[in-house]
Amino acid sequence: MPRGRMTDVDHTGRFDKYREEKLHDPYITEKALAEPTICPVCNAIYHKKRWQFNKKMLLELKLSKKYDSKVCPADRKIADNYPMGVMNLSGAFVIEHRDELVKLIKSEEKHAMEKNPLEKIMSIKKTKDGMSVETTSETLALRIGRILTRAYKGKHEYSFSYGDKYVTVAWRRD
Ligand SMILES: [Zn+2]
User: Fold this and answer.
1) What's the mean pLDDT in 160-168?
2) 131 Cα: distance to centroid of ligand 1 (angstroms)
3) Same domain as 92, residue 54
4) Is 160 found in the same domain as 94?
5) The domain containing residue 92 runs over which residues?
6) Cα–Cα distance between 5 and 27 in angstroms, integer?
7) How many domains does the chain divide into?
């Protein structure tokens, strides 16, 4: 697990070497949940040791009434305001293209959630020089950073700061 502060500035936007490094997630407990469990907030199902969306299974479970109900880790983080990824997008380009960027970020969230319901955006806020985005997983913040680089070539810079609790991704384009 990364400790302290680690900053990397890479103008090519490469940070694959960090992808393997996972932060400790206090919301993922060692104790196994009962199966099946349904999250009452987002309807994700805990099945075969992982959270997933499955409309057919959800319907069957709801009809059978044989399931546990427990809020999933992502929705607990949202309720507790415990982000694991914090992105700061800044610069004139960001201010001018806010709507477009929000659309891109949301579509990436949708894409991520299809694979893992625990990867969610907690908030998107306007800031003085751009916007800030909080995510429930560091992986999602890192992925969005990479997508932004791919989609918008030009002058931008990154810094990744790992602490014990979350990763910060800074993306700037003027
Ligand atoms: Zn949930």
Assistant:
1) 73
2) 25
3) no
4) yes
5) 16-21+77-172
6) 22
7) 2
pTM of the model: 0.82
Q: Across the chain, what does the average pLDDT equal? A: 84
Expressed in angstroms and rounded, the spacing between residue 80 Cα and the centre of ligand 1 is 13
* Domain presence at residue 26: no
Tokens for 101? 């960027």
Tell me if 10 is assigned to some domain.
no
Ligand 1 centroid distance, CA of 76 (Å) = 8
pLDDT of 5 higher than 70: no
Helix (H, G, I), strand (E, B) or coil at 142: helix
Q: How far is the CA of 40 from the centre of ligand 1 (A)?
A: 7
| pLDDT value for 8 | 43
Q: How far apart are CA 83 and CA 144, in angstroms?
A: 15
CA 135 – ligand 1 centroid, Å: 14
Distance 41 CA to ligand 1 centre (A): 5
**Residue 30 within any structural domain of the chain:** no
Confidence of residue 163 (pLDDT cuts 50, 70, 90): low
Evaluate whether residue 123 is within a structural domain: yes
Least confident of 36-40, 53-57, 136-140: 136-140
Which amino acid is present at 83?
P
Q: Which of 4, 2, 7 is nearest to 170 (CA)?
A: 7
Cα 66 to averaged position of ligand 1 atoms, centre (Å): 18
- The CA 2 to ligand 1 mean position distance, Å, reads 27
